[in-house]
Each structure stands twice: as structure tokens, then as C-alpha cells.
Amino acid sequence: MSKWKWIAASRRGTSHERSDTHRQDAYRCVVSRYGRLIAAVSDGAGSASHSRYGAVITCRLLTNRARAYGRVPSRGLFEEWIDELRDTIATTAARHDLQMRDFAATMLFAMSDARSLFIAHIGDGAIVRQDDPDGLWECVSWPESGEYASTTFFVTDNAGVRLRTATFEHSPHALALFSDGIERLVLDFASQTAPSGFFDTMSRAMKDSELPGAQRALSRQLHSYLGTPKINERTDDDKTMIVAVRR
């Protein structure tokens, strides 16, 4: 049985609402047959015409491969999944007479069992973890920006992917993945730290729930919160977050 419970939500940014365009973020959180947590978040590039499809394909393919594999992957195996992902996007693009760059999207991925945690990251957004219920939160994968302002890296980059991975030899108590629409609201860029206040509020909201898996009522509350004026005054981008806690 799964030892993980999680909340997850994605909210369209006000910039997309004003232009009447779709949300370009995607996410997916599942467990493997042996209760291992698998989570992915992807942010489609605003300049790419079909990036929301690139984000959906990214989350779906990587979580499917991880669930079928069943164990925490090595970097080498994950690179094979990324190669398959790029081939899938290239085939989809060719079928519709498009280019891979039309599906440009970032990628955040995490998989954890009872003993270890594997993370992988391309582009911006971030991954943070907490090792015990009363401990500090640590940003284990920081947003990566491109050469110019407001640019980053994508799974579809022609020059190849800038894949960052890490494996930790112990499983976290809690974990969060989020797109760049949230990063400046919850990270301290001056000190490159993850202040605990916001993440503690999210994780403690799940404390009283005995049910494993998706916490749907709390996820709806998170979805509502991400659309409040308090948040939208600080960012007009799409906002996506997964917060998971190990029971």
C-alpha cells in the first residue's frame, strides 16, 4: 500500500486569461505497484505554439515509464527515457508538420521509495525536500536560467538536453515540485534557500488525513489559493505545484 499522500494543483496565469490562451503547465503524481511515489511537473514555453502538448507528453511518458519500471531509476536509465520522450515529441511534431521546438517544455521529476530519492530536472521551476516533520526545507534542484533574461532550457532543445539528476540515499519526509510561476513566491533567491513557512503550511494540512494517495479536497483548496489576488498580484504566469508527504 502507498505510504504517500499528496496535494496537487495547476492554475492558469492571468496573462493567459487576458489573451484567452490555454494553460501551458502540466503535472502528474502517481504511485508504483509497490507504493513508490512518482511525480512530474512540466511548463510549456510561452513562445512555443504547442508547448502545452509538450508538457502533457513529458509528464505522461516519464511517469508511465517510472511506474512500469517500478524502482528508482539510475541516471543512465532516465537518459533513455528522455531520449524516448524526445523521439515521441519529434514524431508527433512531424505528424502535424511542426518542429520539436513548437512543443518546448521544461521538466521536473521525482521518484522515491522507502530508502532513496531520485530527482531529474531540465530548465526552471524547482524541487524542495524536508527530511523530518520538524526539519527545514532544502531546495535540492534550483531553477536554471538561459543565457538571456526570462529564458531557460527545454526537453526539446536542438543542442541536446541540459539534464540535471541527483540520487539521495534516504527517502524524504516531504517533497514539493513546482513550476516557475511559483518559484519567486516560495524561494529566497538572495540566499538560494527555501523558507519553511509556505511548505510547512502545505504539508501540515495533510497531517490529519489517514487516507493515502491524492488528497482531493485539499487539492481543490490549493487550486483556489493559486488563483487568489494575493498570488496573482505577484505573478501572471501559470502556477503548478505538487506537495507529497510520506505517512
Task: Describe the overall structure.
- By secondary structure, the chain is α+β, with helices and mostly antiparallel strands.
- It has a single domain (4-246), classed as 4-Layer Sandwich (Phosphatase 2c, domain 1).
- It is 31% helix and 26% strand.
- It has 7 helices and 11 strands.
- The chain has helices spanning 14-19, 51-69, 75-95, 180-186, 196-204, 216-225, 229-232; strands at 4-11, 25-31, 37-43, 107-112, 117-122, 126-130, 137-141, 164-168, 174-178, 213-214, 239-246.
- It has a 6-stranded mixed beta sheet with strand order 7-6-9-11-1-10. Strands 2-3-4-5-8 form a 5-stranded antiparallel beta sheet, covered by helices on one side.
- β4 and β5 form a beta hairpin.
- The longest helix has 21 residues, at 75-95.
- The model has no long low-confidence stretch (mean pLDDT 93).
Give a brief outline of the structure.
With 247 residues, the chain is of the alpha+beta class. It has helices at residues 14-19, 51-69, 75-95, 180-186, 196-204, 216-225, 229-232, and strands at residues 4-11, 25-31, 37-43, 107-112, 117-122, 126-130, 137-141, 164-168, 174-178, 213-214, 239-246. It has a single domain (4-246), classed as Phosphatase 2c, domain 1, CATH 3.60.40.10.
